[in-house]
Design brief:
By secondary structure, the chain is mainly α. The protein contains 3 helices and no strands. Helices cover 69% and strands 0% of the residues.
């Protein structure tokens, strides 16, 4: 993927200096920064989901069957997923 990012001259100079210190081309250095941020975000999202599911599970009545839990989860996902309008 090619991407153009507009940053201030000061931030561009900082990134270039950091890339030189890491002995990497600036584009590669910036790509590694972006990849690390995305990995961290994915990890945080997974942890947040795990915590949310644990909280939800703690509220489920003991007599609830697995099938009822699955149905409730599917219904909840249907409610929060974006509705897509496919155009041809």
């Amino acid at each position: 993927m090619n991407l153009t990012i507009d940053v201030s001259e000061q931030n561009a100079a900082i990134l270039e200096a950091q890339a030189r210190a890491a002995r990497m081309p600036a584009n590669d250095y910036l790509a590694k920064i972006v990849a690390r941020v995305l990995d961290n975000q994915r990890s945080r999202n997974a942890a947040n989901l795990d915590q949310h599911l644990a909280e939800m599970a703690s509220r489920v009545a003991e007599e609830t069957t697995p099938a009822e839990m699955v149905a409730a989860l599917e219904e909840a996902l249907t409610q929060v997923r974006p509705h897509r309008a496919w155009q041809s």
